[in-house]
Amino acid sequence: MTITAPPTSPPSPVDPPLLKATGEPLRERAFKWMLWFCMAVGLITLVVLITYVLIKGWGRLDSRLIQNMPSSVLPETAGAQSAITGTLWLMTFTAIWSLPTGILAAIYLEEYADPNRWYNRAIEINVLNLAAVPSIVFGILGLAFISRGLGFGPTVLTGSITLALLVLPIVVIASREAIRAVPQSIRAGSLALGATHWQTIYRQVLPAAIPGIATGAILALSRAIGEAAPLLMLGVSFVRFNPDGLMSTFTALPVQIYNWTTEARPEYTDLAAAASVVLLVLLLAMNSVAIYIRNKTQRRW
Amino acid sequence: MSDPNGSPSPPATSSVFTTGTRIRVHESPAGAMTESTPDQPVSVASASAGVSDGEDADRAYESVITTRDLSVFYGSYQAVREVDMNFGKNRITAMIGPSGCGKSTVLRCFNRMNDLIAGARVEGTITYHGQDVYAPDVDTIEVRRRVGMVFQKPNPFPKSIYDNVAYGPRVNGWKVQSMDDVVEEALTRAALWDEVKDKLKESALALSGGQQQRLCIARCIAVQPDVILMDEPCASLDPIATSKIEDLMRELADDYTIIIVTHNMQQAARVSDRTAFFTADVDDDGVRHGRLVEMDWTKKIFTNPSDPRTEGYISGRFG
Q1: Most buried among A32, B15, B16, B269, by the most CB within 10 A?
Q2: Beta bridge pairs of residue B73
């Protein structure tokens, strides 16, 4: 058998050229532009919004805002201190109520619930539906059952429980996703070493799911911090003192912003814009905590 | 990658491995073979002889795990039918056979890992030192501590090397004098200590595949099991890593009873004392299910099997 030697010189080019580029097809380009456009819509809206609020509120963005109490009489001296502290109180307790409850509920649904049982499927559907319920409905719930039913009144306790119920489905859904993303092989490896179900969850599944859970927690609290409707429903309004406990009446930034925008004098709209900036800053601070937690837990591996 | 729950099919085994086996035959990692059985001539058929000469004279055969009429169901589907086997103390028993014949399914009954699959059910009996593994009063935690398992894909925890090995003793609540010693001993036994002793606090995920698998073996022996189940432990490893794991298995057999599921017949021939050959049968109703064809000393299975199906599989006529 003879073996043909490989050609030593490249073959002469053929005509028309086989490999000549004809440019990116139109459809590819069109699709790429469409994607870019959709992304730009969101981004531009955000930039315009933040710029507008910043410009509008710039004149009032000073120490008066955090040092003074709100006033509906003197816009020059009015501040938002009680609203800022109220929001901090509210968020702290919303997180305390909703995060452990939501995470534990997610663990039950992912790790213990038998998906073939009708009641577990019913719970699952309900959790998804609850996430879509308008926040004002939660306000009605809070007013009827917590504020009046349990007699807590328009206090920090009522507000935080109402907001916790509002964001609970978000925490549950995000935590479930995070728990589900932990590979089964990790669970199997742990169980095969004689770890119990709970040890496996506590030592393997939860640590691996923390980044996802932290992201979900932030999504939930970001929703809660901006909610005005349920709080208005509860009767949260103008308050000129800082809350001093769970049973204290309070006001919150979104409510304060809403109140100011309903005032006729233009100074109050500027004040509302300035308070919006404060709200955004609080939101970013909260997000950065979550990002810190996420990075820290990831670095440990 | 979702959950394996509810799926009625037996554990998936990749069909790639039939090819893989053939490739290995041609490659014939002679180095590995001479290392693990230094005094033996390297030939496929007699490679097993280095381990034991069949019904060996030097050691009495003592059964650790025995199955009687073992059938495994996934829901109403009977994946494995009427298997009778026994696994000898300090022996390596290999379970071979084509994909979907139920080898892994049977293996995972021994430490009750099949409990985790919804709808999985066992009929017949499995005894461990005479005790029924599936008796109602059995503590599955204790079963799994005594019958350890190494998985097909290395699955180190996303923790440090040290924490991986210490995990078992910790979750079992052992009061050890020095966890450092436990970790060192387990890693030494798993032939990994020299490679990792300077980076115990580093992530186990940074290790190579073969090192990860040896770490999983170390993690397993840190809880001082009696039996080690290995579900295709070398399936995702290259030949060099494979030969290291095989050497390790031979060493571990001094102290542990090892049961290994493998697609690689050469591996079964190289490392095991006894071999069980499974096949996938189709019954009169057209239902595919796994069956044990025969179980015997590895040497006999590979040189003089009693069943023509075994011979056909081993000589590469099918599967």
Answers
A1: B269
A2: B78, B121
Around Cβ A146, how many Cβ atoms within 10 Å? 21
Contacts with A289 (C-beta within 8 Å, 6 or more apart), sequence order:
none
User: Is residue A62 situated within a structural domain?
Assistant: no
Nearest chain B alpha carbon to A177? B2
Q: Provide ipTM, 2 decimals.
A: 0.77
Q: Which tokens is A199 given?
A: 């040890």
Task: Give the distance from residue B259's alpha carbon to the nearest chain A alpha carbon, in angstroms.
Answer: 15
Domain holding A237, by residue range, is 87-299
How far CA B208 is from CA of A4, B78, B160, in Å, comes to 42, 38, 14
Which of left, alpha, beta for A143 (phi over 0: left; psi -120 to 50: alpha)?
alpha
Residue A114 falls within a domain, yes or no?
Answer: yes
Flag whether residue B144 sits within 8 Å of chain A, measured between CB atoms.
yes
Which CATH number characterizes residue A260's domain? Answer: 1.10.3720.10
Distance of CA B288 to the CA centre of its chain: 23
CB-CB under 8 Å, B149 with A192? yes
- Per-residue model confidence as pLDDT tens digits over A134-167: 999 999 999 999 999 998 988 999 999 999 999 9
pLDDT score for A7: 64
Residue B135 sits at the chain A interface (C-beta within 8 Å): no
Q: Is B318 exposed, middle or buried (0-12, 13-18, 19+ CB in 10 A)?
A: exposed
Task: Give the closest of B1, B111, B205 to A301, CB-based.
Answer: B205
In chain B, which residue's Cα lies nearest the Cα of A209?
Answer: B158
With CB atoms and an 8 Å threshold, state whether A185 touches B153.
Answer: yes
Q: How far is A175 from chain B (nearest CA, A)?
A: 16
Among candidates A184, A194, A301 on the partner chain, residue whose Cβ is nearest the Cβ of B159 = A301
pLDDT tens for each residue of B234-275: 988 888 889 989 999 999 999 999 999 998 888 999 999 999
3-state secondary structure of B81: strand
In-domain check, residue A70:
no
Selected for mutation to probe chain B from A193, A201, A202, A298 (highest B CB count within 10 Å) is A193
Instruction: State the total domains in chain A.
Output: 1
Q: Estimate to the nearest angstrom the gap between the alpha carbon of B106 and the chain centroid.
A: 11
Between CA A120 and CA A115 the distance in angstroms is: 6
How many Cβ pairs closer than 8 A exist between chain A and B? 77
Between 3.30.470.20, 3.40.50.1110, 3.40.50.300, 3.40.50.2000, what CATH number should domain B16-43+70-155+225-314 receive? Answer: 3.40.50.300
